[in-house]
Every structure is written in C-alpha cells, then in structure tokens.
Description:
The complex is a heterodimer.
Chain A: H1 5-17, H2 25-36, H3 41-51, H4 55-64, E1 76-81, H5 84-88, H6 91-102, E2 108-109, E3 115-120, E4 132-134, E5 137-139, H7 144-155, E6 174-176, H8 189-197, H9 199-209, H10 221-230, H11 233-236, E7 249-254, H12 263-270, H13 272-286, E8 290-295, H14 303-315, E9 332-337, H15 347-354, E10 378-382, H16 383-395, H17 397-401, E11 411-418, E12 424-429, H18 434-440, E13 446-451, E14 457-460, E15 478-483, H19 488-502, H20 508-525, H21 531-547, H22 551-556, H23 558-566, H24 568-573, H25 586-589, H26 591-597
Parallel strand pairs in A: 1-3, 6-12, 7-8, 7-10, 8-9, 11-15
Antiparallel strand pairs in A: 1-4, 2-3, 4-5, 11-12, 13-14, 13-15
Chain B: E1 5-8, E2 11-14, H1 21-27, E3 51-54, E4 57-60, E5 71-73, H2 77-93, H3 108-115, E6 132-133, E7 139-142, H4 151-159, E8 165-168, E9 175-178, E10 205-207, H5 220-223, H6 226-241
Amino acid sequence: MPLTDAQKDSVLEFVRKHGAKATQLLQVLREVQDEFHHVPSDAMELVALGLGVPLTQVQSVTEFYSFLSTEPRGQFHILISDSISDHMSGSRELMAHLCGKLNVAPGETRADGRVSVDYTSCTGLCDQGPAGLVNGHALSRLDRARIDRIAELVDGNTSLTDWPREIFTVRDNIRKKGLLLDQPLAPGAALKWSMMRGFDSTFAEIDKSGLRGRGGAGFQTAWKWKFCFEGPEELAVCPVDKNQEAERYVVCNADEGEPGTFKDRVLLQSYAHQVFEGMTICAAIVGAHQGFLYLRGEYLYLRPHLEAILAERRRQGLLGEKILSRAGFDFDIEIHLGAGAYICGEESALIESLEGKRGVPRNRPPYPVTHGYLGRPTVVNNVETFAAAAYIALKGGEWFAAHGTEKSKGSKILSICGDCERPGIYEYPFGVTVAEILRDCGARDTMGVQVGGPSGTFIAEREFGRRLAFEDLATGGSFMIFDRTRDVLEIARNFTHFFAHESCGFCTPCRVGTSLLKNELDKICLGHGTAGDLLELTNLSRLVKSTSHCGLGQTAANPVLSTLERYPELYQARLNALSFEPGFDLDGELAIARKLTGRDDANAHLEQEGA
Amino acid sequence: MKDNTITIDGKPVPFQDGDTVMDAATRAGVYIPHLCHNPEFTPHGSCKLCTVKVNGRNCSACTFPAADGQQVLNDTKELNDARRTITQMLFVEGNHFCPSCEKSGNCQLQAVGYYLNMLDTHFPHFFPNRRVDSSHPDIFLDRDRCILCELCVRASRDVDGKNVFAISGRGIRTHLIVNSSTGKLKDTAMAATDKAAQVCPVGAIIVKRQGFEVPIGERLYDHHPIKDVSLQHEMEVAGGDHG
C-alpha cells in the first residue's frame, strides 16, 4: 500500500529531525519502524532522497539490524530473550503460553496486525529474567501471570503508556560494591580536579593506574588515548602541523550484547555521571569536541534518563561549550541507538553503525584509534572503562593500581546470572577466584561456569580455583552459572545458534561456518550424530576460529571447543553407533509431499536405514 | 636501515611502500589464491581464501600491509587445506551447478577448486532460495552463483559511478541487491559495457547473447591453471600501478 501524504510527511519529518545527515540513517529508520511497524519501501525511497544516500544503503541497513523489518510487524511487537539464562528460567514455556493466549506463532504477525512475537538475543536482564521487549521497552521477571496480563493488554489494545509500570521495572541488583561502586562521585568533581591539576598530569595518572579496557580485550587505556592524540602517521609528517586541526572523537561503547552481561546497564542507570565525566576527561586529553554514546537498542528505556543527565551536565557547565568556563574546551555527547546487532559491540563495526551503515567490521590496520569515525582518530572505550577513568582522575593512578594483580590493576564489575541464589552485580578486585565468587552469590552444586559470555570460556568444577584476570580468565564481565542439572550440549548449542544469528555475513568462514556449526551441533543434539560428526565439528570449529575476519568469528566456536575439551564423554554419549548417518531426515523430507497429497498412511512414510 | 623485504615460504620478496602482502607477492610472481581480490579495486578481505601466516598469525594477504622482515607462509598444506574448506563453503552456500553453468571453464571459483584439488563439496548444501533477475535486456543476474565478493559493488561504485549493487541482509542470509525501486536490474542505469558487468569472478553477472561462443572444454581454465592466468594478468596491473 503506498504511503498517504500525511505518512510521507511524517517520514520527511524524521529526516529533518535528524538534520538530514547520512550518518543518522539508522536513527531515522528506527523512527520509521516505530511509526509503521516496518520500513515500507516508499519510506526507504524518501529516506534515501532525504539523506542523499543510495536506496541500496537504506535497504541494506534495514535488512541488517534485527529490530528493523521490511515486512509489517504487529502494532505490539513482543520479543522474548533467547539467552541461556532465560531458557533456564522457563522462557520457552512462557513463549508457548504467550503464543497460545494471543493465537500467534513465533516469527509471525497475527492476521489482524495487532501483535507479533519472536525470540531475540540476550536483552541484558539475565538477573531478572525471563525477560523480553515490547516495542523496544524492557520487560522483566516474566511469569505466567505477567504473560496473561500482557495478553489482556494487547487484546484490549491498551496503549503502552497505560501499561502497569511494574512490568517494566528494572532493578539494579547491586550485591557487592568495590572500588568503583562504593563511593559515587559528585558530578564534576573529577573534571574540576583534572583541570586544576592539568590534563597532562591527569593523563599521567591514567597511565600510572595501568587501566586496561573493560570490554574484555584489555588494551591499555592510556595507550589508546595517546595514539588517538598523536593521530595518524600521515598527518604527523605534514609540513604544517595538520594534526592540530584534525577532528577527533570519543565513543562510549554501550552496545553491551555479550549474553549474560548487564553491568553497563547498571552503570548507565546509577553511575551515568561518572561515565560521562570519564568521556569528558578523555576528550580534554585527546582534543575531541564530539562524543557519542552508542547505546544498544535493548536499552532504549534508559535513553530518557541518560538525556536528562546530559542536560543536567550542560546546565552545570560540565558539557557543551566552554566547559567549566575554559575557553576552547568544547565537548558534547550524542546518544546513538543500536537496533539489535551483537556485532556492533566490535569497535570498528560500531563506528560503521555510527556512520549510518551496516555493522560490518573494518579491515585493520588502520585501527579506529587513528582512522575511526569518518576516518578521524577515535577513542572507543567500554562504559566501565570511562567510569574507572573518572575515578582515577580524581583519586590517582596509585590508588587504583594498589588493587588487583600485576597485569590486571583495579577491580572488575561482574554480571552474575544462572544457577545461584543472588544474581546481580558484583565488584571484585582482579585476581578473585571463581570459587570465591560462587560462594558469595550462593551457587550450589555447580557443574561449570561460562566466563566472559559465549565468546569466553566454559570452565568445569576442577578449575574453580582459577582467577579472573587478564593473566588467567579474561572477561568482559559475563559470569553464567550452571548447576549439575544442566545439559552441557544444550548450553553450547544455545551459544552456537546465537553466533550464527549474529554473524554479520562479511567473511566466508564466519558467514557459512557458523551456520554449518549450528547445523552440525543440532544434528548431534537431535541424536543423528556419529563419530565422523564429532571430528567434523572439531575441524570446522578450528577453521572458523583461525580464519575469520573479526572477534565474532574467531570466538564463535569457543562454546563447542571448550565444552568438547572438558566433556568429550557427554558428546560421545549422544552419538549413534553407525559409522555414518545422513544429515537430513528422510521421512521428514516427505512431510511436504504428505501434506500436499493429504496422506499419512504407512506407505507415505520412509524408514531411515539403520535407525 | 630498511631494505623493504619480506620472505614468502622462505624466499625473499621485495616490496614497495604501501604494498600489501598480496601486492608484493604478485609482483614477485608468487601466487596466493584469492577470489574477492582484484588488483584494480580497493582490497576487500572477505573471501579469506588468501589467508597466509604472517609471523605465525593468520592474515588476509590482500589487506595486510607488508612490513620489513615479515615471514610469510603461503603454500603450505595447512593453509591450502583451509583454503579448500573455505572454497567448499562457498560452493554449498549458493547453488553452483558447474555442468549447466555458462561460466564453466571461465569461472574463478571452479578454477580455484581445481587448483586446491577440491574433489567434492564436503558439507551439506544449503540450497538457498535466491531470486534470479533476467529483467535487463543485456545482462543476466543469477544470484544462485553469487559468492558475495563485492567486486560488482566496487566496480559500479568506483569505476562506473553508478552504485548499481550493494550487499544486504546478515549472516547466512546475506545477499546481493540492486539499486532501483523495483529492485530489478532493468530499472538501473547499468549497461553491458560497464566494468561491473565484466568483473564477476563467477557466473552471477553474465552479459546476454554471448553464451557458449567458446565451447566448454576450450575455455580459459580448461587449459591453464588459475595460478598462471592470475599471475599473468595481475603482474601487469601490479607493475603498472607502481611504475
């Protein structure tokens, strides 16, 4: 159906609102999706024209991000989190219940257009799941009663603004405070002190602190800032010091998509001043005037709160022009929303997304720190890194470095979920043992822990003496606990499906390999695997790991490899004695033919040889 | 003192400033298998066929900058095994039926398969349902054969200045799209003389009415391994580029 004139006007209004800038493409499309429950092709053309980008760019961005669609979704679009911790707390059963109540199937839109339901990757509420989203807004602590209530509200066509607030309530669940969470900073305190002492010596403190990136990779924060300040080599060798003129950017990576991680959600909810203050100090050090907070689409509900804090900081002279009345110290922060793509947590994919493109990781070198946003030097740091930097600016590098281990200074904020009594946020000095954490959060009969999320490592009981630190178990903060009632293969399978769903599709080994891995593991889990399949799984995993383009592909096989290494017997137990079994189900292949002919007698079935 | 030399499989290979490992190798007559790379265009690094080991670490030769003293491994069993597997992945991902394909014998995917001694497709086929576009009077677009190398995307954008193609979707559902409101090739400015119509390494973009002008059996790769064809063509480009 073509758009009416009024509808066209609203699309053009979205374009105008975002300054008709090509970099705002994803933001504009989010609004179009909200308005029309999909991105109609007419709207794509208007957006392409308005932003001056090829139509193909609009279409390809629409088809890349999970929260955008070319087919109409329901007026109420309900997503249930498909993370393993949600499964363990009954999300699959709740989905069936929801579908029954609403008379709709996952992945479908009901004929009347009222509602659609589907699964989505981890929504970052693993400490209060099963969780979900309705039209992008977080749903927590789902149970049958809540699902019934939601079904009533949908059937009654109740506007979201009139839904009971408690359905949307997200708790912080901070269980253990340490170095950072213990003492909230007064807004502006670290910035004022840094300015008084001089930003050069503030940089020296960051350097002395040994702070390393909190997203998981652990690059030295001071080095990153220094490289950004120094800029690319080609500018440095110019006869005129072009480096002084080059625009620089500071980006906070709040695309917290690693399943089982939710500490950034809490930092942004209750420590946002510190995060923004860390960004502002970084801007002063590297010489940036523009900052971005890349907020994952799942945290849409945090946006009004964050905008309010930014406004407050502008009022207090901590952001905007002439910060703290110093001439030339201009810096502001813009919030940029993601739209359901785990890959955008990878820093170069994040920058592509900021530029209004598909989130495809770039070739490196050059690195974002010299050739980042719009090709300019750009610092991309994790939420927790900026928060820590603000504390270090105030309290000094030695204060920070006095905690933790030799190569991992300071503390780490963990997101703990799964089989324990008290899931939530825990802050520990680096070097803490897994056993100690398990004791604190009330975990019993623990079989294993997934440290660092699906891209990290699965560790078994005999390894609980290991320590969280870059020297041993590096982690971005995800800590998922599994007790002895859990099935290791199902855990690995959930993670493997996740990676296949989130692969950006750029390079062959990841694009094809993650889907092959998923199918191979499904085959084994469904009881059709043989010894050959296990070998196949191992070889495939090694190839995907060693030849993929970015961190996603390089870690996508970790769930299989780390569980296969620790529990080969559990995999063996699932195999058939046959030397070979086809990957397809002969009888299953005839299902369409049976449906077409209306037959279901014995002769319309085939028996698999050897089964 | 810089002497601008790397070694490839133990053999010293000189390079020029700004060279990738692939550039240096090509100029020196060392073949590194590749599909998405074509020296006439900005390197892309997506097919991963050109994976080499640089100082012990896997890198894409077509995008990785050469630097003094690098020790590069290229023609090893381990790397060729990986390349064969990647080629098999490309085969099962699309719908490649060589015997009925007009590109057979001139197809780089097929030729690389021969070069790497690929005897089967190994993996279960995905048999994707992809849209064929025969709307254009002079050009045929068969997405079944597309390997997502983006050469047509780059050629149309950077040489033809038309932006006819783009890559859309995500993961295993990644696909090639066409820049027109109907999504059809006939509604674009594309012409059979465009660079984009010439660069497809496989049979996804084919100029009409030229089919079987050369019989199968007498085509390029029917007689010459891709290693020789590629080096002969690309050494010229590499030489021209760098004086």
